[in-house]
Amino acid sequence: MARYVVDVMPKPEILDPQGKAVHGALPRLGFAGVQDVRQGKRFEIELEGEASDELLAEVQRMAETLLSNPVIEDFAVHVEGDGVGGKHTA
């Protein structure tokens, strides 16, 4: 079984109200020095078979089609445990 991770984040130029709310709350809770917070989504996808370039490409298509909104979000896909994989920044 292959496990892939898809991390989806708002593009840098897109406002992130959830990240701003967390950023504002952290100092009130005693956490100083935080410069910025951006909030995103993480998907863990398990597929039959061993990790391969073909499966990586399939997960990238999933991310482009359903898991992210390419107009306002970027995503990165990697095999869990290796930290290396495809990255998409539209």
Automatic annotation (TrEMBL):
One of its GO terms (cellular component) is cytoplasm. Its EC number is 6.3.5.3. One of its GO terms (molecular function) is ATP binding. It catalyses: N(2)-formyl-N(1)-(5-phospho-beta-D-ribosyl)glycinamide + L-glutamine + ATP + H2O = 2-formamido-N(1)-(5-O-phospho-beta-D-ribosyl)acetamidine + L-glutamate + ADP + phosphate + H(+). Its main location: cytoplasm. Pathway: Purine metabolism; IMP biosynthesis via de novo pathway; 5-amino-1-(5-phospho-D-ribosyl)imidazole from N(2)-formyl-N(1)-(5-phospho-D-ribosyl)glycinamide: step 1/2. Gene3D superfamilies: Phosphoribosylformylglycinamidine synthase subunit PurS. Keywords: ATP-binding, Cytoplasm, Ligase, Nucleotide-binding, Purine biosynthesis. One of its GO terms (biological process) is 'de novo' IMP biosynthetic process. It holds the Pfam family PurS. It is found in: Cytoplasm. The keyword Protein biosynthesis does not apply. Belongs to the PurS family. Part of the phosphoribosylformylglycinamidine synthase complex involved in the purines biosynthetic pathway. Catalyzes the ATP-dependent conversion of formylglycinamide ribonucleotide (FGAR) and glutamine to yield formylglycinamidine ribonucleotide (FGAM) and glutamate. The FGAM synthase complex is composed of three subunits. PurQ produces an ammonia molecule by converting glutamine to glutamate. PurL transfers the ammonia molecule to FGAR to form FGAM in an ATP-dependent manner. Part of the FGAM synthase complex composed of 1 PurL, 1 PurQ and 2 PurS subunits. This is Phosphoribosylformylglycinamidine synthase subunit PurS. The gene is purS.
